[in-house]
Amino acid sequence: MLKNYYNKIAVGGTFDRLHNGHEFLIKTAFELSDNILIGITSDAFASLKCDNIEPCKVRINRLRDIIKEFDKEYIIKAIDDPYGTAIDDVDLEAIVVSHETEDSAIKINEIRKKKGLKLLDIVVIEWILAEDNIPISSTRIRKGEIDQKGYLL
């Protein structure tokens, strides 16, 4: 168990080609709280990033597959912007991010501050590296460089 514990925590992303980095992100959130808000990029918002992203329903089902080992309360919400409900949820206490999404968490706190809401603790996880010591990413998987576990193809 990690040392901080929160009543409600958020985590978000596209979660395309669910990989070891995503799993570590999700598991960290579940270790830190019994109540997890998971924001997942909607199909419409994801299509702005890339045209080869798995459908939201597929991504949600894969998330549920890794979440089923935890006996904790969670909700998965499709989001249409980089912030989702993290900018409005008064019960949120923290957000788990990777280095890649840390700037979004900072922006979320700026918006929350303007709204008079409590700032979120930002928990930044380390990159999970592929066997070539380059971070595992959905982009690399889509390009056929690595698999979801980080093995070179």
Layout of strands and helices, then pairs:
Layout: E1 9-13, H1 20-32, E2 35-41, H2 43-49, H3 56-67, E3 73-79, E4 94-98, H4 102-114, E5 121-125, H5 138-142
Short description:
The chain is 33% helix and 19% strand. The model has no long low-confidence stretch (mean pLDDT 95).
Describe this structure in words.
This protein is globular. Helices cover 33% and strands 19% of the residues. Strands 3-2-1-4-5 form a five-stranded parallel sheet, with helices on both faces. The chain is an alpha/beta fold. The protein has helices at residues 20-32, 43-49, 56-67, 102-114, 138-142; strands at residues 9-13, 35-41, 73-79, 94-98, 121-125. It is built from five helices and five strands. The model has no long low-confidence stretch (mean pLDDT 95). The protein has one domain: 3-Layer(aba) Sandwich (Rossmann fold).
The outline comes out as globular
Helix content estimate:
25-40%
Count, helices: 5
Q: Approximately how much beta-strand content do the residues carry?
A: 15-25%
CATH top-level class:
Alpha Beta
Largest sheet: 5 strands, parallel
- What's the arrangement of strands in the largest beta sheet? 3-2-1-4-5
Write the CATH architecture name.
3-Layer(aba) Sandwich
Instruction: Provide the succession of SSEs.
Output: EHEHHEEHEH
Which consecutive residue ranges, at least 5 long each, have pLDDT under 50?
none
The end-to-end distance, rounded to whole angstroms, is: 34 Å
* Mean pLDDT score: 95
Overall radius of gyration: 15 Å
Query: In terms of structural class, how would the helical and strand content be classed?
Result: alpha/beta
Do you know the CATH topology? Rossmann fold
CATH superfamily heading: HUPs
Number of domains: 1
Number of strands: 5
